[in-house]
């Protein structure tokens, strides 16, 4: 295999335990596998496999370790903090831009 071929090969996506559980909840909540997969941007067969694994009690994430509720909350809060910081930075730049344009 040449280096060009290696670079062209797409990396395999890895999903967290939380993401998989949320996807399965969508399906168990009444949404079809196809619709949920389309919404999440995953392949139908992948989501089907997650649902099947969940029902068998064998659903695992990319890191294959159990995640506690506290760890999930910490991850959610970190993601929210990053989003809020980004919004703050954007608003600061917009304020500076419009203040400069108003003069």
Description:
The protein is an all-alpha fold and 103 residues long. The chain contains five helices and no strands. The protein starts with a helix and ends with a helix.
Structural class: mainly alpha
The best one-word shape is elongated
CATH topology of the largest domain: Arc Repressor Mutant, subunit A
Secondary-structure element pattern, one letter each = HHHHH
Percent helix range = over 70%
**What is the rounded Rg?**
20 Å
> Into how many domains do the coordinates divide?
2
CATH architecture of the largest domain: Orthogonal Bundle
Mean pLDDT: 83
The main pleated sheet reads as: none
Q: Please, how many helices?
A: 5
Q: List low-pLDDT spans.
A: none
- Beta percentage is under 5%
Summarize the structure.
With 103 residues, this protein is mainly α.
């Amino acid at each position: 295999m040449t280096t060009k071929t290696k670079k062209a090969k797409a990396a395999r996506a890895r999903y967290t335990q939380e993401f998989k559980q949320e996807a399965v909840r969508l399906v168990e909540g009444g949404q079809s596998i196809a619709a949920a997969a389309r919404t999440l941007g995953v392949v139908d067969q992948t989501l089907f496999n997650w649902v099947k694994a969940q029902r068998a009690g064998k659903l695992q994430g990319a890191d294959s370790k159990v995640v506690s509720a506290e760890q999930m909350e910490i991850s959610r809060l970190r993601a929210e903090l990053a989003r809020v910081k980004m919004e703050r930075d954007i608003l600061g730049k917009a304020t500076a831009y419009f203040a400069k344009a108003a003069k």
